[in-house]
Structure formats: C-alpha cells, structure tokens
C-alpha cells in the first residue's frame, strides 16, 4: 500500500472520522456547513472579480470593495477548509482515488496561485489605478481566471458524489 493510501486509511480510522462517517446526522450537517462556507467565500470572491471585470459595482473603488469583503472571504475560507478537512477524513480512502476530488485539489492550488500572483502584481499597485482609470489587463485576466477556477472547483466538488 502506498504511503498516501496508508495515511488516508489512518485518517479514515480515527475515531472522529469514523463518528462522522457513521452518524446519520453529523456528515450532512458538516457537508451543509461546508456548502454554506463555500457560498460565502466564492460569493465574495466573485463580487470582487466582477468589480475587477467592470461588470458589477463599477462606481465603487476596487480597494473599498475588496476591503469590505475580504474579512468575510477569510471567514468563509477558514470554515470551508475545516469542514472540508473533516469531510475528507471521513472518506479519505475513497476520495484518494476520486478523479473529481483530485481535480478539485489541483484547481484549488491553481486558484491559490492565481490569488498570490494577483496580489503581488496588479493589486500591489491598486492605488495607481483604483480611482477612475481602467482596471489593468492583468487584473482583469486574474479575475476571469478566478471565476473559471472557482466554478470548476464547485463543479468538481459536486461531482465527487457521482464519480468514485
């Protein structure tokens, strides 16, 4: 057995993982929390992305929109990550072999990389383009990529239930 599968089996065999997977109520509750947190996080990210693309909130400065939504984004991310880890632990062995889950993880890594690149390039100079000038091409590309990646993450997350 590979070390990854051995780790997944160990994780799955933890008492808390077993309790989550064997309970009639715990798994659906944690899954619902995960979906709600995902909605909060992706919703706030989408609003910022749509502002960067000039589709929504055009009269608001990007820095103001991002500043107001960022705390909610991080709350959503934290709850989503914790609930996702719990859900993974309860089905670790099955999910390790799931193409949909593997693709979801790859897309999550790409979304994180896109965020880092955006913050260290275009957003680093937001003060120079935030007031009345056009959003730089790099920021618009990053926003479009973000929307595509998060859409893919949501679809892959949903497909996990159907592709074993």
Biggest sheet architecture: none
What count of structural domains? 1
Low-confidence stretches: none
Q: Total number of helical segments?
A: 8
Cα-based radius of gyration, to the nearest Å: 18 Å
Give the helices and strands as they follow along the chain. HHHHHHHH
Specify the overall morphology.
elongated
Number of strands: 0
Beta-strand percentage range: under 5%
Salient structural properties:
mainly alpha; 8 helices; 79% helix; elongated
Overview of the molecule:
- With 164 residues, this protein is mainly α.
- It has one domain (3-159).
- The protein is built from 8 helices and no strands.
- It has helices at 3-13, 15-22, 26-52, 62-90, 92-96, 99-120, 126-129, 137-159.
- The radius of gyration is 18 Å and the shape is elongated.
- The model has no long low-confidence stretch (mean pLDDT 92).
Give a summary of the structure in a few sentences.
The protein is mainly α. It is built from 8 helices and no strands.
List the helices and strands and how they pair.
Blueprint: H1 3-13, H2 15-22, H3 26-52, H4 62-90, H5 92-96, H6 99-120, H7 126-129, H8 137-159
Helix pairs in contact: 2-4, 3-4, 3-8, 6-8
